[in-house]
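Consider this:
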Amino acid sequence: MSQTHQPQQHPQYPPFQPQQQPTQVARNGLGTAALILGIIGALSGLIPLMFWLAGILGVIALILGLTGRARAKRGEATNKGVALTGVILALASLGLAVFGAYTTFKAVDDAVDEINKSVSDTKAKDTDAKGTDKSDSSGKGADKGKDEKPAAGKALDAGDSVIYDDDLTVAVSNAVTFSPSEYAAGHSKGNHAYKVTVTVTNDSKEKFDASLLQTSARAGADGVDAEQIFDEAVGTGFEGTIMPGKKATVVYGFDAPADAKNLTVEVEPSFEYDATQWDLKL
């Protein structure tokens, strides 16, 4: 009896399918942020006073834009153009920030200069007004001892002082007769000898070269030159420098005719200063 063999069946498997890779999400956030900040920074830079905001946003946008471009080159982002635009706007923001800072600071400096100029003009007007009051009060000058500029064409009285623009002050005392010694130079027989005290006070910020100071005198109504007398401590003149906040005093002697009623003393601190005259009664 024969046996029938049935063919052995093998299990059926589904055909092989390759495994799908997960889709990578584009990282476009940095490029987009750079674009937004660049736009805001550029608009802020158009306003000079907002230069600080434009500068800050420009720096941040530049960093984000460059990083976004690097991601796009690696294939991690797809908005390379957006990131590049953000970089360009960031550079524009920084340029506008620099220009705005320059414009703002220059405007502030100009305003400060104008204020200082206005203050100086006001002080000058006040000084001129005081000088006018001084000349109108008595026809001769102001109260003795005041540090004022003489009115144009007017001489100061004995004891008055003149103050220059840099706060250098010069004062001349009244003329006092004295008897020169036998060794005195510059005194003529029959004339009278007078001595005056010149005081220089340096209230400026720089030292003053006192050796440059020149003093001369004229006597009488005819304005005859009064020769300077040199006698021991009289007529030696100023020497050296006067430091800020200090003063120096020198006695000058002058020879005048016996009938002279006044002595006009002129003092010129140096070639940088105007000469000033004092009308001293004898």
